[in-house]
Amino acid sequence: MGYLCDFCGDQRSLVYCRSDAACLCLSCDRNVHSANALSRRHSRNLLCERCNLQPAFVRCDEEKISLCQNCDWLAHGSSPTSSTHKRQTINCYSGCPSAAEFSSIWSFFLDIPSMGEACEQELGLMSINENGNKSDLVPPEGQNVSGSAQVTDLPTKVKFWAGTSSIPVSGSEPRILDQPPGPGNECMPKLYCPGKKNSGICEDDNLYDDFIMDEVDLELENYEELFGMALSHSEELFENGGFESLFEAKDMSASVGESHCQGAVVAEGSSAGLVNAIQSACSNAASADSMLSTKTEPIVCFTGRQSQSNISFSGVTKESAGDYQDCDASSMLLMGEPPWCPPCPESSLHSANRSNAVMRYKEKKKTRKFEKKVRYASRKARADVRRRVKGRFVKAGDVYDYDPLSQTRSF
DNA sequence: ACGACAGTACTATCCACATATGTAA
DNA sequence: TTTTACATATGTGGATAGTACTGTC
Protein backbone atom coordinates (compact mmCIF):
# COMPACT_ATOMS: atom_id res chain seq x y z
CA MET A 1 0.00 0.00 0.00
CA GLY A 2 1.43 3.31 -1.01
CA TYR A 3 0.84 6.78 0.32
CA LEU A 4 -2.65 8.10 0.63
CA CYS A 5 -4.32 10.69 -1.51
CA ASP A 6 -3.69 14.21 -0.25
CA PHE A 7 -7.28 15.11 -0.99
CA CYS A 8 -9.45 12.29 0.28
CA GLY A 9 -6.87 10.66 2.45
CA ASP A 10 -8.51 7.40 1.67
CA GLN A 11 -7.34 6.06 -1.62
CA ARG A 12 -3.82 5.36 -2.61
CA SER A 13 -2.24 8.30 -4.41
CA LEU A 14 -1.28 7.48 -7.95
CA VAL A 15 -0.62 10.75 -9.65
CA TYR A 16 1.24 13.86 -8.76
CA CYS A 17 0.08 17.36 -9.62
CA ARG A 18 2.88 19.88 -9.67
CA SER A 19 0.56 22.82 -9.75
CA ASP A 20 -1.21 21.71 -6.64
CA ALA A 21 1.84 20.10 -5.16
CA ALA A 22 -0.40 17.22 -4.32
CA CYS A 23 -0.46 13.47 -4.61
CA LEU A 24 -3.89 12.35 -5.63
CA CYS A 25 -5.83 9.21 -6.34
CA LEU A 26 -7.39 9.01 -9.76
CA SER A 27 -10.82 9.84 -8.48
CA CYS A 28 -9.76 12.98 -6.68
CA ASP A 29 -7.48 13.87 -9.52
CA ARG A 30 -10.43 13.94 -11.82
CA ASN A 31 -12.69 15.71 -9.37
CA VAL A 32 -10.16 18.38 -8.58
CA HIS A 33 -9.02 18.94 -12.11
CA SER A 34 -12.38 18.99 -13.77
CA ALA A 35 -13.48 21.91 -11.64
CA ASN A 36 -12.62 24.59 -14.15
CA ALA A 37 -10.62 25.34 -17.25
CA LEU A 38 -7.60 26.43 -15.31
CA SER A 39 -7.38 23.40 -13.13
CA ARG A 40 -7.83 21.23 -16.17
CA ARG A 41 -4.59 22.64 -17.44
CA HIS A 42 -2.67 21.38 -14.45
CA SER A 43 -0.07 18.94 -15.60
CA ARG A 44 0.03 15.72 -13.72
CA ASN A 45 2.22 12.73 -13.85
CA LEU A 46 2.46 9.33 -12.34
CA LEU A 47 3.85 9.18 -8.88
CA CYS A 48 7.18 7.49 -8.36
CA GLU A 49 6.29 4.02 -7.18
CA ARG A 50 9.39 3.78 -5.09
CA CYS A 51 9.59 6.95 -3.07
CA ASN A 52 5.99 8.02 -3.54
CA LEU A 53 7.14 11.57 -3.28
CA GLN A 54 8.34 12.70 -6.66
CA PRO A 55 6.63 12.63 -10.00
CA ALA A 56 7.76 9.68 -12.03
CA PHE A 57 10.29 10.34 -14.70
CA VAL A 58 10.81 7.04 -16.43
CA ARG A 59 9.12 3.69 -16.66
CA CYS A 60 11.34 0.67 -16.34
CA ASP A 61 9.96 -1.95 -18.67
CA GLU A 62 11.97 -4.69 -17.02
CA GLU A 63 10.83 -4.05 -13.50
CA LYS A 64 7.49 -2.58 -14.56
CA ILE A 65 7.87 0.29 -12.20
CA SER A 66 7.64 4.05 -12.57
CA LEU A 67 10.49 5.96 -11.06
CA CYS A 68 11.50 9.51 -10.41
CA GLN A 69 14.96 10.49 -11.50
CA ASN A 70 16.42 9.97 -8.08
CA CYS A 71 15.01 6.52 -7.71
CA ASP A 72 15.82 5.75 -11.30
CA TRP A 73 19.38 6.57 -10.62
CA LEU A 74 19.49 4.59 -7.46
CA ALA A 75 17.95 1.65 -9.23
CA HIS A 76 19.78 1.81 -12.51
CA GLY A 77 22.64 4.20 -12.24
CA SER A 78 25.05 2.23 -10.20
CA SER A 79 24.56 -1.28 -11.40
CA PRO A 80 25.94 -2.34 -14.78
CA THR A 81 23.24 -4.95 -15.17
CA SER A 82 20.27 -2.89 -14.16
CA SER A 83 21.54 0.09 -16.12
CA THR A 84 20.75 -1.82 -19.30
CA HIS A 85 17.11 -2.02 -18.38
CA LYS A 86 14.90 -0.66 -21.06
CA ARG A 87 13.21 2.46 -19.88
CA GLN A 88 10.92 5.03 -21.39
CA THR A 89 10.17 8.52 -20.32
CA ILE A 90 6.78 9.24 -18.85
CA ASN A 91 4.46 11.88 -20.18
CA CYS A 92 2.65 14.40 -18.16
CA TYR A 93 -1.00 14.82 -18.89
CA SER A 94 -3.63 17.40 -18.31
CA GLY A 95 -7.37 17.49 -18.66
CA CYS A 96 -9.42 14.49 -17.68
CA PRO A 97 -8.28 11.59 -19.79
CA SER A 98 -10.21 8.37 -20.06
CA ALA A 99 -8.67 4.97 -19.59
CA ALA A 100 -8.20 4.68 -23.33
CA GLU A 101 -6.48 7.99 -23.47
CA PHE A 102 -4.32 7.10 -20.56
CA SER A 103 -3.32 4.09 -22.56
CA SER A 104 -2.44 6.24 -25.49
CA ILE A 105 -0.34 8.50 -23.33
CA TRP A 106 1.29 5.69 -21.43
CA SER A 107 1.69 2.56 -23.45
CA PHE A 108 2.40 0.74 -20.23
CA PHE A 109 -0.76 2.03 -18.63
CA LEU A 110 -2.47 -1.30 -18.36
CA ASP A 111 0.67 -2.81 -16.88
CA ILE A 112 0.09 -0.79 -13.79
CA PRO A 113 -2.24 -2.96 -11.76
CA SER A 114 -3.37 -0.30 -9.38
CA MET A 115 -3.91 2.13 -12.19
CA GLY A 116 -5.80 -0.32 -14.27
CA GLU A 117 -8.07 -1.26 -11.45
CA ALA A 118 -8.61 2.23 -10.30
CA CYS A 119 -9.27 3.38 -13.76
CA GLU A 120 -11.83 0.71 -14.40
CA GLN A 121 -13.61 1.66 -11.24
CA GLU A 122 -13.30 5.37 -11.45
CA LEU A 123 -12.91 6.35 -15.02
CA GLY A 124 -14.52 3.61 -16.90
CA LEU A 125 -17.77 5.42 -17.42
CA MET A 126 -16.38 8.85 -17.75
CA SER A 127 -16.37 10.71 -20.94
CA ILE A 128 -13.14 11.77 -22.47
CA ASN A 129 -13.71 15.32 -21.65
CA GLU A 130 -16.65 17.09 -20.33
CA ASN A 131 -16.60 19.75 -22.91
CA GLY A 132 -15.41 17.48 -25.57
CA ASN A 133 -12.35 19.55 -26.05
CA LYS A 134 -9.59 17.19 -26.77
CA SER A 135 -7.04 19.91 -26.65
CA ASP A 136 -7.16 19.60 -22.95
CA LEU A 137 -5.50 16.34 -23.21
CA VAL A 138 -1.81 16.05 -23.17
CA PRO A 139 0.41 15.07 -24.86
CA PRO A 140 0.37 18.23 -26.84
CA GLU A 141 0.65 18.49 -30.55
CA GLY A 142 3.62 16.97 -32.19
CA GLN A 143 4.61 14.96 -29.26
CA ASN A 144 4.87 11.27 -29.40
CA VAL A 145 3.90 8.89 -26.75
CA SER A 146 7.30 8.06 -25.56
CA GLY A 147 8.22 11.65 -25.33
CA SER A 148 7.39 13.86 -22.50
CA ALA A 149 5.02 16.67 -22.04
CA GLN A 150 5.23 20.20 -21.02
CA VAL A 151 3.88 21.58 -17.88
CA THR A 152 1.60 24.30 -18.94
CA ASP A 153 0.76 25.72 -15.65
CA LEU A 154 2.72 26.31 -12.57
CA PRO A 155 1.21 28.20 -9.73
CA THR A 156 4.41 29.10 -8.04
CA LYS A 157 4.84 32.79 -7.74
CA VAL A 158 7.85 33.91 -9.60
CA LYS A 159 10.04 36.65 -8.34
CA PHE A 160 12.69 38.52 -10.18
CA TRP A 161 15.65 39.96 -8.50
CA ALA A 162 18.37 42.07 -9.84
CA GLY A 163 21.61 43.54 -8.76
CA THR A 164 24.96 42.33 -7.75
CA SER A 165 24.04 40.73 -4.54
CA SER A 166 23.70 37.08 -4.14
CA ILE A 167 20.46 35.26 -4.50
CA PRO A 168 18.24 36.56 -1.79
CA VAL A 169 17.76 34.04 0.89
CA SER A 170 16.11 34.34 4.19
CA GLY A 171 15.81 37.88 5.30
CA SER A 172 16.89 39.30 2.03
CA GLU A 173 13.99 40.73 0.22
CA PRO A 174 14.29 40.36 -3.50
CA ARG A 175 13.47 43.18 -5.77
CA ILE A 176 10.27 42.25 -7.42
CA LEU A 177 9.70 43.27 -10.95
CA ASP A 178 6.45 43.14 -12.73
CA GLN A 179 6.11 40.22 -14.93
CA PRO A 180 5.24 41.11 -18.45
CA PRO A 181 1.76 40.11 -19.39
CA GLY A 182 0.92 37.81 -22.18
CA PRO A 183 2.10 34.45 -23.28
CA GLY A 184 5.55 35.03 -21.91
CA ASN A 185 4.37 34.39 -18.45
CA GLU A 186 2.90 31.17 -19.40
CA CYS A 187 5.99 30.14 -21.17
CA MET A 188 8.43 31.14 -18.53
CA PRO A 189 7.95 28.45 -15.97
CA LYS A 190 7.63 25.64 -18.41
CA LEU A 191 9.60 22.67 -17.44
CA TYR A 192 11.77 20.65 -19.59
CA CYS A 193 10.97 17.03 -19.64
CA PRO A 194 13.68 14.72 -20.79
CA GLY A 195 13.56 12.89 -24.02
CA LYS A 196 11.55 15.49 -25.75
CA LYS A 197 12.81 16.53 -29.11
CA ASN A 198 11.13 19.82 -29.14
CA SER A 199 11.46 21.09 -25.70
CA GLY A 200 8.76 23.64 -26.14
CA ILE A 201 10.65 25.99 -23.97
CA CYS A 202 10.10 29.47 -25.19
CA GLU A 203 9.14 28.41 -28.61
CA ASP A 204 7.90 31.84 -29.19
CA ASP A 205 10.40 34.56 -29.53
CA ASN A 206 7.82 36.93 -28.26
CA LEU A 207 8.64 35.76 -24.86
CA TYR A 208 11.93 37.46 -25.04
CA ASP A 209 10.58 40.35 -26.98
CA ASP A 210 8.32 41.07 -24.09
CA PHE A 211 10.93 40.34 -21.56
CA ILE A 212 13.51 42.98 -22.14
CA MET A 213 15.41 43.69 -19.03
CA ASP A 214 18.11 46.00 -20.23
CA GLU A 215 17.37 48.25 -17.34
CA VAL A 216 17.88 45.42 -14.99
CA ASP A 217 21.55 45.36 -14.45
CA LEU A 218 21.80 41.84 -13.39
CA GLU A 219 25.17 40.57 -12.52
CA LEU A 220 25.84 37.19 -11.11
CA GLU A 221 29.17 38.02 -9.70
CA ASN A 222 28.74 35.65 -6.88
CA TYR A 223 27.63 32.65 -8.72
CA GLU A 224 30.24 30.49 -7.15
CA GLU A 225 28.90 31.53 -3.84
CA LEU A 226 25.37 31.08 -4.97
CA PHE A 227 25.88 27.64 -6.28
CA GLY A 228 28.70 26.67 -4.09
CA MET A 229 26.75 24.06 -2.26
CA ALA A 230 25.55 22.44 -5.38
CA LEU A 231 28.88 22.73 -7.02
CA SER A 232 30.56 20.97 -4.21
CA HIS A 233 28.83 17.85 -5.39
CA SER A 234 28.83 18.50 -9.04
CA GLU A 235 32.13 20.20 -9.53
CA GLU A 236 33.52 17.44 -11.58
CA LEU A 237 30.67 17.59 -13.96
CA PHE A 238 30.27 21.26 -14.37
CA GLU A 239 33.88 22.21 -14.46
CA ASN A 240 33.78 20.71 -17.90
CA GLY A 241 31.88 23.64 -19.20
CA GLY A 242 28.57 23.56 -17.47
CA PHE A 243 28.17 26.41 -15.07
CA GLU A 244 31.13 28.10 -16.58
CA SER A 245 29.24 28.35 -19.81
CA LEU A 246 26.07 29.19 -18.08
CA PHE A 247 27.59 32.22 -16.52
CA GLU A 248 29.35 33.34 -19.58
CA ALA A 249 26.01 34.95 -20.00
CA LYS A 250 27.02 37.49 -17.46
CA ASP A 251 29.87 38.77 -19.55
CA MET A 252 28.01 38.55 -22.76
CA SER A 253 24.99 40.35 -21.54
CA ALA A 254 27.15 43.11 -20.21
CA SER A 255 28.73 43.73 -23.55
CA VAL A 256 25.90 43.13 -25.91
CA GLY A 257 23.64 46.11 -25.91
CA GLU A 258 20.73 44.31 -27.38
CA SER A 259 20.89 41.58 -24.89
CA HIS A 260 17.51 40.71 -23.61
CA CYS A 261 16.42 38.81 -20.65
CA GLN A 262 19.27 39.64 -18.38
CA GLY A 263 17.06 38.46 -15.68
CA ALA A 264 16.91 36.03 -12.97
CA VAL A 265 13.96 34.44 -11.40
CA VAL A 266 14.06 33.03 -7.97
CA ALA A 267 11.73 30.95 -6.04
CA GLU A 268 10.01 31.85 -2.90
CA GLY A 269 11.67 28.86 -1.44
CA SER A 270 14.15 28.91 1.34
CA SER A 271 17.86 28.98 0.90
CA ALA A 272 17.94 25.30 1.50
CA GLY A 273 15.83 25.02 -1.57
CA LEU A 274 18.76 26.10 -3.66
CA VAL A 275 20.40 22.77 -3.50
CA ASN A 276 17.13 21.13 -4.17
CA ALA A 277 16.66 23.47 -7.03
CA ILE A 278 19.86 22.33 -8.61
CA GLN A 279 19.05 18.76 -7.90
CA SER A 280 15.60 19.01 -9.28
CA ALA A 281 16.94 20.79 -12.26
CA CYS A 282 18.87 17.74 -13.07
CA SER A 283 16.26 15.34 -11.91
CA ASN A 284 14.03 16.91 -14.44
CA ALA A 285 16.94 16.88 -16.80
CA ALA A 286 16.16 20.51 -17.05
CA SER A 287 17.15 21.30 -20.54
CA ALA A 288 20.73 20.64 -19.82
CA ASP A 289 21.73 22.00 -23.13
CA SER A 290 20.34 25.38 -22.58
CA MET A 291 21.36 25.20 -19.03
CA LEU A 292 24.92 24.57 -19.98
CA SER A 293 25.18 26.78 -22.94
CA THR A 294 23.01 29.72 -22.25
CA LYS A 295 24.98 32.52 -23.65
CA THR A 296 23.04 35.20 -25.34
CA GLU A 297 19.87 35.50 -23.42
CA PRO A 298 20.10 33.99 -20.05
CA ILE A 299 17.22 33.37 -17.81
CA VAL A 300 17.84 31.75 -14.54
CA CYS A 301 14.61 30.43 -13.29
CA PHE A 302 13.85 28.93 -9.98
CA THR A 303 10.43 27.86 -9.08
CA GLY A 304 9.92 26.47 -5.71
CA ARG A 305 7.54 24.14 -4.01
CA GLN A 306 8.16 23.28 -0.43
CA SER A 307 10.96 20.80 -0.36
CA GLN A 308 11.05 20.39 -4.04
CA SER A 309 12.06 23.05 -6.44
CA ASN A 310 12.44 23.17 -10.12
CA ILE A 311 15.03 25.05 -11.99
CA SER A 312 15.25 25.95 -15.58
CA PHE A 313 18.00 27.76 -17.29
CA SER A 314 16.78 28.86 -20.60
CA GLY A 315 18.57 30.83 -23.19
CA VAL A 316 16.98 29.03 -25.99
CA THR A 317 15.64 30.89 -28.91
CA LYS A 318 13.52 29.44 -31.59
CA GLU A 319 16.45 29.32 -33.90
CA SER A 320 18.87 27.88 -31.50
CA ALA A 321 16.65 25.43 -29.77
CA GLY A 322 17.38 22.64 -32.17
CA ASP A 323 21.03 23.23 -31.95
CA TYR A 324 20.89 23.13 -28.24
CA GLN A 325 18.88 20.00 -28.38
CA ASP A 326 21.56 18.37 -30.39
CA CYS A 327 24.17 19.35 -27.94
CA ASP A 328 25.44 16.42 -26.06
CA ALA A 329 25.59 17.96 -22.68
CA SER A 330 22.17 16.63 -21.96
CA SER A 331 23.33 13.17 -22.54
CA MET A 332 26.20 13.97 -20.34
CA LEU A 333 23.79 14.56 -17.55
CA LEU A 334 21.62 11.65 -18.36
CA MET A 335 24.36 9.18 -18.83
CA GLY A 336 26.54 10.12 -15.95
CA GLU A 337 25.82 10.12 -12.31
CA PRO A 338 23.45 12.70 -10.99
CA PRO A 339 25.40 15.82 -10.22
CA TRP A 340 24.42 15.82 -6.60
CA CYS A 341 25.79 12.40 -6.03
CA PRO A 342 29.33 12.37 -4.75
CA PRO A 343 31.74 10.48 -6.93
CA CYS A 344 31.75 6.83 -6.13
CA PRO A 345 33.75 3.90 -7.47
CA GLU A 346 30.80 2.53 -9.39
CA SER A 347 30.56 5.69 -11.34
CA SER A 348 33.80 4.98 -13.11
CA LEU A 349 31.83 2.91 -15.55
CA HIS A 350 30.14 6.06 -16.72
CA SER A 351 33.12 8.31 -16.68
CA ALA A 352 34.18 7.34 -20.16
CA ASN A 353 30.76 8.03 -21.53
CA ARG A 354 30.67 11.28 -19.76
CA SER A 355 34.06 12.29 -21.04
CA ASN A 356 32.96 11.53 -24.55
CA ALA A 357 29.83 13.54 -24.03
CA VAL A 358 31.80 16.43 -22.69
CA MET A 359 34.15 16.29 -25.64
CA ARG A 360 31.28 16.30 -28.07
CA TYR A 361 29.68 19.10 -26.18
CA LYS A 362 32.81 21.19 -26.42
CA GLU A 363 33.07 20.52 -30.12
CA LYS A 364 29.51 21.54 -30.60
CA LYS A 365 30.02 24.63 -28.54
CA LYS A 366 32.97 25.57 -30.70
CA THR A 367 31.04 25.43 -33.90
CA ARG A 368 27.89 26.97 -32.59
CA LYS A 369 27.23 30.41 -33.90
CA PHE A 370 25.15 33.05 -32.23
CA GLU A 371 23.62 34.96 -35.03
CA LYS A 372 23.33 38.66 -34.86
CA LYS A 373 19.89 40.04 -35.23
CA VAL A 374 19.62 42.88 -37.69
CA ARG A 375 17.05 45.40 -36.62
CA TYR A 376 17.14 47.70 -39.56
CA ALA A 377 17.47 45.95 -42.85
CA SER A 378 17.82 49.22 -44.69
CA ARG A 379 20.87 50.13 -42.68
CA LYS A 380 22.33 46.76 -43.25
CA ALA A 381 21.72 47.07 -46.96
CA ARG A 382 23.50 50.36 -46.98
CA ALA A 383 26.39 49.11 -44.90
CA ASP A 384 26.72 46.16 -47.18
CA VAL A 385 27.49 48.38 -50.13
CA ARG A 386 29.50 51.02 -48.34
CA ARG A 387 33.06 51.59 -49.38
CA ARG A 388 35.69 51.24 -46.73
CA VAL A 389 39.25 51.90 -45.79
CA LYS A 390 40.64 49.27 -43.49
CA GLY A 391 37.16 48.29 -42.57
CA ARG A 392 36.05 51.78 -41.77
CA PHE A 393 33.44 53.64 -43.71
CA VAL A 394 34.70 56.48 -45.81
CA LYS A 395 33.01 59.62 -46.98
CA ALA A 396 31.35 59.48 -50.32
CA GLY A 397 33.87 60.48 -52.91
CA ASP A 398 36.92 59.76 -50.78
CA VAL A 399 39.42 57.15 -51.81
CA TYR A 400 38.67 53.66 -50.62
CA ASP A 401 40.48 50.38 -50.54
CA TYR A 402 37.47 48.13 -50.47
CA ASP A 403 34.25 48.27 -52.43
CA PRO A 404 31.83 45.49 -51.50
CA LEU A 405 30.14 45.79 -54.85
CA SER A 406 33.14 45.61 -57.12
CA GLN A 407 35.82 44.45 -54.69
CA THR A 408 38.07 47.02 -56.28
CA ARG A 409 40.19 49.87 -55.07
CA SER A 410 39.99 53.50 -55.99
CA PHE A 411 43.73 53.95 -55.96
C1' DA B 1 55.11 22.81 -10.38
C1' DC B 2 55.91 27.07 -12.44
C1' DG B 3 56.93 30.72 -15.82
C1' DA B 4 57.72 32.17 -20.64
C1' DC B 5 56.22 32.04 -25.06
C1' DA B 6 53.41 31.21 -29.26
C1' DG B 7 49.12 30.42 -31.19
C1' DT B 8 44.19 30.89 -31.10
C1' DA B 9 39.77 32.94 -29.97
C1' DC B 10 37.12 36.60 -28.86
C1' DT B 11 35.71 41.53 -28.07
C1' DA B 12 35.79 46.55 -28.58
C1' DT B 13 36.50 50.15 -31.52
C1' DC B 14 36.49 52.94 -35.54
C1' DC B 15 34.38 54.99 -39.60
C1' DA B 16 29.99 57.59 -42.61
C1' DC B 17 25.52 58.23 -42.98
C1' DA B 18 20.47 56.98 -43.39
C1' DT B 19 17.02 56.65 -40.31
C1' DA B 20 14.72 56.66 -35.82
C1' DT B 21 13.63 59.41 -32.01
C1' DG B 22 13.03 63.47 -29.17
C1' DT B 23 12.14 68.41 -28.58
C1' DA B 24 10.65 72.97 -29.52
C1' DA B 25 8.15 76.26 -32.22
C1' DT C 1 -4.02 69.18 -30.64
C1' DT C 2 -1.55 68.64 -34.76
C1' DT C 3 2.13 69.70 -37.86
C1' DT C 4 6.70 71.03 -39.01
C1' DA C 5 11.59 71.77 -38.41
C1' DC C 6 15.57 70.74 -36.32
C1' DA C 7 18.92 68.25 -33.27
C1' DT C 8 20.52 64.13 -31.48
C1' DA C 9 20.95 59.08 -31.10
C1' DT C 10 21.18 54.72 -33.24
C1' DG C 11 22.81 50.98 -36.00
C1' DT C 12 24.80 48.94 -39.84
C1' DG C 13 29.85 45.68 -41.55
C1' DG C 14 34.87 44.89 -42.16
C1' DA C 15 39.37 45.55 -40.42
C1' DT C 16 42.24 45.93 -36.66
C1' DA C 17 44.15 46.30 -32.01
C1' DG C 18 43.87 44.58 -27.61
C1' DT C 19 42.84 41.05 -24.23
C1' DA C 20 42.07 36.43 -22.57
C1' DC C 21 42.75 31.77 -22.89
C1' DT C 22 45.18 27.39 -24.10
C1' DG C 23 48.90 24.42 -25.06
C1' DT C 24 53.83 23.47 -25.29
C1' DC C 25 58.42 23.69 -23.71
How would you describe the overall organization of this protein?
InterPro entries: CCT_domain, CONSTANS-like_Bbox1, Znf_B-box. Belongs to the CONSTANS family. The chain is α+β, with helices and mostly antiparallel strands and 411 residues long. It has a domain at 15-113. 34% of the residues lie in helices and 10% in strands. It has helices at 26-33, 37-40, 69-77, 99-105, 113-122, 183-187, 206-210, 223-226, 228-238, 242-246, 248-255, 272-283, 288-293, 318-326, 329-335, 348-367, 377-385; strands at 15-17, 22-24, 44-46, 58-60, 65-67, 87-89, 159-160, 263-266, 299-305, 308-313, 388-389, 392-393. A four-stranded mixed β-sheet has the order 7-8-9-10. It has a three-stranded antiparallel β-sheet with strand order 2-1-3. It has a three-stranded antiparallel β-sheet with strand order 5-4-6. The longest helix is centred in the last third of the chain and has 20 residues, at 348-367. It starts with 14 loop residues before the first strand and ends in an 18-residue tail after the last strand. The structure holds a DNA duplex (25 and 25 nucleotides).
